[in-house]
């Protein structure tokens, strides 16, 4: 009775292990070892050398072409940058035009209401509460900036960036502490202002802000600072500083000047009493 090999079913593995070379390659290797291999003529060697040199040159040229920036991409990037700069300049010009129109509206409003000083004072008070009037006085300045790791772009450093929620907490705490007017990076906040985020950018009334974020609040500095320290806003600032490495600086200022917002949206109006009536005929 014949015995079968244990690896009878593994023919492919046996071929790889026992005969790693193809029979043709093995025969050529044996001829070279015996010295009976045919010698290539010089012209065939020259052809092989030229083909190899051509392939190497082509590979090097292709690699260099891949590393050269595309002119089309550079032109598209330049066009995009020019469009961005144009839009930014246009937005800044429109912002200045809005400020001029708002000043003109205030002037005409004061002239038209000069005959009723009591009502004019009421309008001024409402304008101040709505953030439309310029405010000057002492107050607090709170500066927040990203952590060093976040500024350097280190991995897993997103928690070290100032978020829109942080500015919301700080501004609400300042209002609760008695602030009369609040602005972030020169953008005056009103009762309808929105602090939001769009990706990594923080927007105040759809205007993007750049770090560092400077929050200015006009009011009694000592009273605001004491009430802020005891509030949840003060605890939030401590957590940002100690747990996430966010830079937080609180300073008192004597001559803060906060501009009025140019956003004028009419939400409620009442008719005034007629100044005069036409004579009946």
Nutshell version of this structure?
With 281 residues, the protein is an alpha+beta fold. 50% of the residues lie in helices and 16% in strands.
Biggest β-sheet strands, sense, barrel: 5 strands, antiparallel
Overall shape: it is elongated
Provide the structure class: alpha+beta
For the biggest β-sheet, the strand order reads 3-2-7-1-8
Strand content: 15-25%
- The count of DSSP E runs of length 2 or more, i.e. the number of strands, is 8
Tally of alpha and pi helices: 9
The ordered H/E elements are: HHHHHEHHEEEEEEHHE
Uncertain stretches of 5 or more adjacent residues: 275-281
Give the helix proportion (percent range).
40-55%
Mean pLDDT value: 82
For the record, give the distance between the C-alpha atoms at the N and C termini, rounded to a whole number: 140 Å
Please describe what this structure looks like.
This protein is 50% helix and 16% strand. It has helices at residues 11-18, 23-34, 42-67, 71-112, 117-129, 148-152, 164-176, 221-229, 232-244; strands at 135-145, 181-184, 187-188, 195-198, 201-204, 207-209, 213-218, 247-258. The longest helix is centred in the first third of the chain and has 42 residues, at 71-112. The termini are far apart. 16% of the residues are buried.
Question: Mind sketching the topology for me?
Answer:
Layout: H1 11-18, H2 23-34, H3 42-67, H4 71-112, H5 117-129, E1 135-145, H6 148-152, H7 164-176, E2 181-184, E3 187-188, E4 195-198, E5 201-204, E6 207-209, E7 213-218, H8 221-229, H9 232-244, E8 247-258
Antiparallel strand pairs: 1-7, 1-8, 2-3, 2-7, 4-5, 5-6
Helix pairs in contact: 7-9
């Amino acid at each position: 009775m014949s015995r079968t090999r244990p690896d009878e079913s593994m023919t492919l593995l046996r071929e790889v292990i026992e005969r790693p070379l193809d029979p043709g390659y093995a025969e050529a290797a044996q001829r070279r070892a015996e010295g009976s291999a045919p010698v290539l003529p010089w012209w065939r060697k020259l052809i092989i050398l030229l083909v190899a040199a051509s392939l190497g040159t082509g590979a090097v040229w292709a690699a260099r072409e891949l590393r050269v920036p595309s002119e089309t991409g550079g032109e598209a990037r330049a066009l995009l940058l020019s469009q961005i700069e144009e839009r930014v300049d246009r937005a800044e010009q429109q912002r200045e035009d809005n400020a001029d129109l708002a000043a003109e509206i205030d002037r005409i409003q004061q002239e038209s209401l000069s005959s009723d000083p009591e009502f004019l004072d009421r309008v001024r008070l409402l304008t101040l509460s709505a953030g439309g009037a310029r405010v000057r006085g002492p107050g607090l300045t709170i500066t927040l900036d990203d952590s060093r790791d976040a500024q350097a772009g280190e991995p897993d450093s997103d928690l070290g960036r100032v978020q829109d929620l942080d500015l919301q907490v700080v501004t609400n705490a300042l209002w609760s502490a008695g602030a009369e007017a609040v602005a972030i990076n020169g953008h005056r906040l009103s009762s309808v202002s929105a602090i939001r985020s769009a990706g990594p950018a923080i927007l105040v009334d759809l205007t993007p802000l750049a770090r560092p974020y400077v929050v200015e609040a006009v009011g009694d500095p000592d009273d605001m600072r004491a009430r802020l320290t005891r509030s949840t806003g003060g605890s939030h600032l401590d957590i940002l500083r100690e747990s996430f490495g966010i830079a937080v600086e609180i300073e008192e200022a004597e001559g803060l000047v906060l501009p009025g917002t140019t956003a004028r949206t009419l939400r409620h109006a009442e008719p005034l009493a007629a100044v005069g009536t036409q004579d009946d005929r």
